[in-house]
């Protein structure tokens, strides 16, 4: 199957490449888990960079159409391995929308900060490399119930000019071709200090649900370090597990 990219088209190269790869993996010769040509060969054939090609492949891995294994390569996913598990967790906006809960942004601040040792260690960067910090105070129209602090790896490509009122992970995928694939979380309880109490309009010492979320892309590279402080009497965090 001949693969060609129109370099004069206004359609982004990675979008064109994704469409071509979708056609390729639907062809009879690739049904049943056959390996795709390696990235070097494919990028040369298409006349695009490996980085651009990888964006397209990452999206198809996210959609469950391709699978990638280190040392083996990228192959077409067999039907029995297709799964929607990667889509079972969502951004806060998506979660609230799915529950029919109207959400208001009470505060939204974007700034560039130097990471402390904890953040530099997580992102595996030096402490003199600035990262984007996103602060959001959110809740129902009648009052806030969660305060978020998010930090992003500089390689994500955020400029600070993006629309942070939109669902975060949708924006990252659409504008920066970064697919949030894995979320690892730590949940604990703490008492509100003066800052959190003032933000959540509660008293100092009130119980707070504290959640750390570590978000990674398809290649399990860190993209976001998120801290969430939830007003305990206004929010229930539910986890559902199933045996397979």
Automatic annotation (TrEMBL):
Record domain HTH gntR-type: where: 11-79
Keywords of this entry: DNA-binding, Transcription, Transcription regulation
PROSITE patterns in the record: HTH_GNTR
UniProt-recorded name of the protein: GntR family transcriptional regulator
Organism domain of life: Bacteria
Pfam families, sorted: GntR (PF00392), UTRA (PF07702)
GO process terms (BP): negative regulation of DNA-templated transcription
Molecular function GO labels: DNA binding; DNA-binding transcription factor activity
Lineage start: Bacteria, Pseudomonadati, Bacteroidota, Sphingobacteriia, Sphingobacteriales
